[in-house]
Please model this.
Amino acid sequence: MAATSAVLNLVSAGDHVVASDDMYGGTYRLFSRVLARYAIEFAYVDLSDLDAVRAALRPNTRLVWIETPTNPLLKIVDIAAVAALCHPERSVIVAVDNTFATPYFQRPLALGADVVVHSTTKYIGGHSDVVGGAAITNDDATYDTIKFHQNSIGGVPGPFDAWLTMRGAKTLALRMQQHESNARKIAEFLASHEKVERVYYPGLSSHPGHDLAKKQMSGFGGMLSFTLRVPEARTMDFAARLHFFSLAESLGGVESLICHPARMTHASLPKEDRERRGITDGLLRLSVGIEDADDLIEDLSSELAKL
Model:
């Protein structure tokens, strides 16, 4: 959040920001409940729909904030196409939260983005033992502005936090290969199960963003979401009974986690907004770890059989 806040200092009072309608709940909270108080206007649109992006841009639009894949519905946004809408005739900054994909699977600067943000708490740290963020740009003026505000406001990591993050980054490639391999197998298993209503994972050919994900990513990542064919009130019970998936927030660590976005990561969104965006009480999100895939599938299969 310190990294996100630092990047948002690129905009000023009176500016307009176009943001994804499916994003991390903490980002939405920052935008809607903090920065909106300072005369910065936010429009939340489906950025996977280029016509919607085009319609949302205004003369005072200063920044477009992208997540891809999105959290928690795993939508895929065409970074290069959005950047083309914003450059060069428009002086609109394109920022991409690349936390889900990681630099191993997706490189937004090469696709035309101006700034990339990571929650290094997640995959880059990789061991659920450090909190941090990073903002990356290849433009000197943008760097100077972000760095000035970081220094002025004081959102900096401690030395040990930085050391833990760099330690985790050394194994990022190996971990991401295993995360994705496990996630693919679990997504295929869930998609074929009679008690699963829908699976959100860009690695499935049924995903509407599958072809685009293949084009702009080198892999599909370790995150997926799904809904069950049971009353929504029972989804938390299912999540709590799993053995190898801990019911917890966060993501991107070596251990597998299951999350109920409506009550956890996205609880800051009003209920009507959550449901309109598809974040229902029946939605569960998995951060698939690096354990043995067969063990993880057996855990899910065993509890699904009890529903």
